[in-house]
């Protein structure tokens, strides 16, 4: 198999024992696939020990999946990696009685990220969207994927470029879902954003998708929005509620001031819903301003449902 040795994913760095652990293949099988089928062509240390690149590890993983799906190694060993990935994805979708679970999609998204395959990654997300309900898709595929990306990045197993590839693909995927879910929203208006200094935007986008799927008319603003602008937008669209996502940092004194200012400038009837991994850092101010702090997307849905019931019982003069 022709291999470029220049890109970081093509640098030989993993000894065969590590490759065996990562791929679930035995050391003997890896050697046979290399010797007999030229499935990979590892580099060598000065002591002539094999060293495999990330791309080769990924390729071996795909070959393992292809053989598990019933293919003969001799038939697939020479395929280009992209083609192999497509074959494995198709085999997985086609296997009767073994429908892929959310964790399978997380795994195949991570594999696509490792090989910097944004098209493959978007394809996996699109397939997951067909397989699962919106809450399962968001919680068990998208959020689980991002958590795993964060952990691997933290451990030095994923490069920043690979994390950025996933973030961009997930951002565009969620944007698409938001667009299609939000078309018929005739319910009350929900404004979703992240406040000043909060640049992680995917939590807000997930909240926007979920609310739109539940029939809210969602107005989603880009992240890092000053309190005065959130309040002005909420007034203009006659929002029933504002949802904020806080991800990092957990201890920004400026944000405490912003949250107070937001509450002062919002009409009293506008509910303030706040979630995200950093929200625990702001519990005191959130409780002071009467915002609802929500520990999960499931709690968020329940809070939205309550608000809708309350709105239906006492609609505001301008409510939709
Ligand atoms: C993608 C990412 C980025 C991207 C963001 C891209 C984007 N467009 O949003 C980029 C590269 C820009 C980035 C930058 C940074 N990041 Co970052 N990032 C991540 C990563 C991998 C995923 C975040 C994400 O989107 N998750 C998906 C969301 C939806 O999941 P979640 O936050 O867990 O949310 C769940 C709940 O909290 C809830 N929820 C979330 N939002 C909301 C909102 C509402 C209303 C409700 C009800 C619920 C809710 O639902 C979700 C599902 O359960 C995380 C890892 C991780 N474990 O999350 C790190 C992570 C958040 N980042 C981290 C860090 C340190 C940084 C940087 C400081 C890195 C640096 N040195 O520059 C910068 C800071 C940027 C800044 N100024 O804010 C740390 C934070 C550590 C900490 N102490 O909190 C993390 C945890 C990585 C790590 N393991 O160390 N990051």
TrEMBL record:
Coiled coil: none annotated. It comes from the Bacteria. Residues 187-318 form the B12-binding domain. InterPro entries: Cbl-bd_cap, Cobalamin-bd, Cobalamin-bd_sf, DNA-bd_dom_put_sf, MerR-type_HTH_dom, MerR_fam, Meth_synthase_dom. Residues 13-82 form the HTH merR-type domain. Keywords: DNA-binding, Repressor, Transcription, Transcription regulation. GO terms for molecular function: cobalamin binding; DNA binding; DNA-binding transcription factor activity; metal ion binding. This is Transcriptional regulator. It comes from Sulfurifustis variabilis. The lineage of its organism: Bacteria, Pseudomonadati, Pseudomonadota, Gammaproteobacteria, Acidiferrobacterales.
